[in-house]
Amino acid sequence: MATKIDEEQLMNDMLCRVKAVNNMPHDIRATLLDFKVDGYKVGKVRPGIAEMLCNMKTSVFELKQEDDSKKKSYLTLTSDAGTSSEERTKAVGTVMNQLRDEGFVKGWRDELFPVSENFYSPPVFLMERAAVTVLGVLEYGVHINGIVQESRQDEPKMWIGRRSATKSKFPGMLDHIVAGGQPSGISLIDNVVKECEEEAGIEESIVRAGVQSVGAISYENWDPKSDKLTRAVQFTYDLYLPPDFEPKPVDGEVQGFMLWTMDQVKESMAMDYADPIKPNCYVVIIDYLIRTGQISPDSNGFLDILRELRSGDCQ
Amino acid sequence: MATKIDEEQLMNDMLCRVKAVNNMPHDIRATLLDFKVDGYKVGKVRPGIAEMLCNMKTSVFELKQEDDSKKKSYLTLTSDAGTSSEERTKAVGTVMNQLRDEGFVKGWRDELFPVSENFYSPPVFLMERAAVTVLGVLEYGVHINGIVQESRQDEPKMWIGRRSATKSKFPGMLDHIVAGGQPSGISLIDNVVKECEEEAGIEESIVRAGVQSVGAISYENWDPKSDKLTRAVQFTYDLYLPPDFEPKPVDGEVQGFMLWTMDQVKESMAMDYADPIKPNCYVVIIDYLIRTGQISPDSNGFLDILRELRSGDCQ
């Protein structure tokens, strides 16, 4: 089934796949303003968006000058937004509702997402998940590589899911066996267990026996059309599944699964591949290929891919 | 033998261990000049070192202005250095010999190291290995985690070597089972095989059966005493060894080996640990602990360590 893969072409394709997700040109990065609450950096915005937010009727945003000699501006909340998480959640929500009504925020999910200084800190407020790219707030999620490999000597295979045709984002596209956003109030590993059960019918005992945390990947993307910033950290897991186990769609997010060889995974990297995987999955899969010796560091381009993978470190 | 390890303390210690090797303050980074040959960036230097090099009697160095509007300077070779790799090797060698005679370059090894735009490009010249920190040239090496773990369910153990008391650098200190610089003209994997045989008596068939490339780590260090820059990329490998195999010192670089549990590895991270491992090994080991799920991403500080690990990406 698999055709011989040209190594040089594969390295180029992988670099393109990373750049497609992790796309923040230097000149755009230089213009970004911090979005701060209580002095903590909690997001990043382009100047045009900051201005738009400050000029809205219902605005609770204002620009202030940094204290240092550089006199750079930063975006923050006005005192009208209140000082508690609850007050700010409500105040920012009013602004985001307006942006939804104006069509600037699409795909509203009615799901509140925590905004905080870092992943382990309590949130300074919550905001609608679909609107976080307006403020360049860092999104956290879990991505699971579903692997079948009985011993290290065996060639691993990877489970690939197909998203439901009714999903609001990337309908019908190929995907990881399981992936999901990280809600507040639940540990990462408990979220992994929960998502595995809900999305792929993998029971808890199988997950806990076969799962291993393997790090995190991060990426930052600037969308030239909307000027919004996607900034994400995906905690990554390898889940080793028994060879006789088959994942099953449970909650309707996925319509089916198939088990791919590493050659099939590599073939799908080609930029003209007819039925590609969801873009951010490629970054997680490339990290897997590197970590597990499926790509040789002797191949020209290996370090370029590694560097690009690590460039969007999302502080 | 192992005492219970405090998770919070461990995360702090690991962060300190990474920072100890990957130490490039922002204000120092901002002052660095590129060292260019034929328009390629091949190193970085502090302004004081650049000035010293240009003012030496035998100098073949000069400062030039960047073409762009920022008018920043860069260090390059004069036309007196010639245009071929051979001529430049000789010209730069004369300068480095003088710096050795003046005591500025220590630990001379009579080993020529390739200077190139990137790892996969042919060298623009060669220079004495002990002198590469003068020009902030990127050094490449291989580091091997020697692992005993029969199946994924087993707790892994790691072989730790003790360096010979007569080594010029870090004599008598704990070390990886095998590590070494990457010479030109040999592939990384062949170098791994060669070093494993020479340093630890691991025969080729055992290496090839158990070795897996797992990526690379990089670090940049500024030495405030000498103003020199250490910049390195270490290609990393996990070598799974049979449980009944014992590494043996062969070439006298190592005096002995011991097999540690992961608890012992983690205990040795403490900044006041009496008999620590060679500093750059900690960075490779922390990467191993993260990749193999020995540290939970639910632990506060996990992302700080990951970010710090990836900050010295050594372009």
Search tags:
homodimer; 315 residues; alpha+beta; Nucleoside Triphosphate Pyrophosphohydrolase; Transcription Regulator spoIIAA; seven-stranded mixed sheet; 9 helices; globular; DUF4743 (chains A, B); Nudix hydrolase domain-containing protein (chains A, B); NUDIX_hydrolase_dom (chains A, B); NUDIX_hydrolase-like_dom_sf (chains A, B)
General description of the model:
Chains A, B: This is Nudix hydrolase domain-containing protein. Chains A, B: Residues 127-283 form the Nudix hydrolase domain. Chains A, B: GO terms for molecular function: 8-oxo-dGDP phosphatase activity. The first copy, chain A, has 315 residues and is of the alpha+beta class. Chain A has two domains: 7-24 and 140-309, Nucleoside Triphosphate Pyrophosphohydrolase (Alpha-Beta Complex), CATH 3.90.79.10; 26-134, Transcription Regulator spoIIAA (2-Layer Sandwich). In chain A, 29% of the residues lie in helices and 27% in strands. The first copy, chain A, has helices at 7-21, 26-29, 47-54, 85-101, 188-200, 204-210, 262-267, 279-291, 302-309; strands at residues 33-37, 40-45, 61-65, 73-77, 112-115, 125-128, 138-148, 157-163, 174-176, 178-181, 211-222, 229-240, 254-261. In chain A, the strands form three sheets. In chain A, strands 7, 8, 9, 10, 11, 12 and 13 form a seven-stranded mixed beta sheet that branches. Chain A has a four-stranded mixed beta sheet with strand order 2-1-4-3. In chain A, a hairpin with a 7-residue loop joins β3 and β4. The radius of gyration of chain A is 21 Å and the shape is globular. Chain A starts with 6 loop residues before the first helix and ends in a 6-residue tail after the last helix.
